[in-house]
User: Which sequence fits this backbone?
């Protein structure tokens, strides 16, 4: 790809990566390494691999047709789009609450904000207000520019911490645990939650298709399908690689020690930052604290925009009416209020909120994966625009993988 074409295409993949690297990486991957060493690494690798086709299909479909996946669901059958809209409405408040609650913890710790227990919701409220203002004032143009800055800082600071940890080595001996000792009823909810947002929830593939069409409008450049897919894959595999970095950080700095991560957002943030800084050197303290906050801030912005943008588009397609700025403002307002209400309700149970949000995402993954597969192998795309045979096989295996673990989660809820 030529340099000029790359920079004109660059945007949606970086936005996806910044949105993905939040709870799944900073919280879940760190916990996986801290509690199980490298024992759960196979699940992280499997989630990244088997989800990859369905995210890639979003960018591919948008570039090939000029339409979002949401429009494609309607073309398959209106019932699919209605079901997607229901899924969106059921998950948007929990997901936005989860990412904002984590970000609020890092915000409080970064700036040394101490509040009485009764007012712990105020930082979350401030973040919802900031995210709303950021999106209301600039929409995609500001979102695209802001995320590139946040994403660059996030990448550099995380890699710095990772390489320092590798240089110093693990704090305690790493003992490999066989899978049969790890996969049991007590650990299954965490494993499902870990994979639910690894690297992100599959329903967010519609966001990437919308960001792709928006980037084309903004830049005035129509990239080829190969150019779009290359740009997305770059962002995707950066996010996948960083998930492994956080596992290593958790395993090297926490596993086998007497240190634990608290079950509240501020405690978790301070635990991560203080532990990393104490082991990597006090001079890294501002780097780790700032990295954690910027990671989560980028996630908050991307998630709110993604849910609002996809909901507006779904409603517009179902009603066969054009979108409007007022609808976008309405939905980011509603998402902020609903997310804030969810935080107030779950405020005392940080881990349960994260597990609930990630589990919901994983349970609906097989359906979205199937729909994305149907679209890219339909007659809406030319044969030259469709994925190759290897990607088709990987997608079929991925659907089976996601279905199997969703059934496992259902079995767990029924019998344990």
Assistant:
């Amino acid at each position: 790809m030529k340099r000029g074409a790359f920079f004109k295409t660059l945007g949606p993949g970086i936005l996806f990566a910044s949105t993905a690297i939040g709870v799944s990486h900073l919280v879940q991957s760190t916990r996986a390494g801290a509690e199980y060493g490298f024992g759960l690494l196979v699940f992280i690798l499997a989630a990244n691999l088997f989800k990859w086709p369905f995210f890639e299909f979003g960018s591919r479909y948008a570039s090939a047709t000029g339409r979002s996946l949401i429009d494609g669901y309607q073309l398959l059958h209106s019932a699919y789009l209605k079901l997607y809209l229901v899924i969106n409405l059921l998950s948007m408040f929990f997901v936005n609450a989860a990412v904002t609650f984590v970000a609020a913890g890092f915000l409080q710790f970064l700036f040394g904000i101490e509040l009485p227990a009764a007012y712990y919701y105020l930082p979350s409220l401030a973040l919802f207000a900031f995210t709303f203002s950021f999106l209301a004032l600039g929409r995609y143009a500001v979102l695209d520019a802001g995320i590139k800055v946040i994403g660059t800082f996030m990448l550099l600071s995380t890699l710095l911490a990772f390489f320092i940890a590798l240089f110093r080595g693990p704090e305690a001996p790493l003992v490999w645990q066989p899978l049969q000792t790890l996969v049991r009823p007590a650990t299954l909810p965490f494993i499902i939650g870990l994979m639910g947002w690894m690297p992100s929830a599959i329903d967010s593939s519609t966001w990437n298709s919308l960001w792709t069409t928006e980037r084309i409008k903004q830049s005035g450049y129509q990239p080829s399908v190969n150019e779009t897919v290359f740009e997305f894959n770059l962002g995707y595999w950066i996010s996948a690689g960083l998930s492994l970095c956080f596992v290593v950080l958790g395993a090297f700095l926490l596993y086998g020690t007497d240190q634990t991560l608290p079950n509240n957002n501020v405690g978790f943030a301070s635990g991560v930052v203080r532990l990393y800084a104490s082991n990597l050197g006090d001079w890294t303290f501002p780097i780790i604290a700032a990295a954690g906050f910027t990671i989560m801030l980028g996630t908050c912005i991307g998630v709110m925009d993604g849910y609002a943008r996809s909901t507006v588009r779904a409603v517009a397609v179902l009603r066969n009416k054009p979108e409007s700025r007022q609808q976008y403002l309405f939905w980011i307002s509603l998402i902020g209020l609903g997310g804030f209400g969810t935080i107030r309700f779950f405020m005392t149970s940080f881990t349960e909120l994260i597990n609930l949000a990630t589990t919901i995402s994983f349970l609906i993954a097989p359906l979205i994966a199937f729909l994305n597969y149907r679209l890219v192998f339909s007659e809406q795309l030319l044969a030259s625009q469709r994925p190759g045979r290897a990607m088709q096989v990987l997608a079929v295996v991925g659907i089976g993988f996601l279905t199997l673990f969703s059934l496992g989660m259902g079995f767990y809820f029924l019998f344990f």
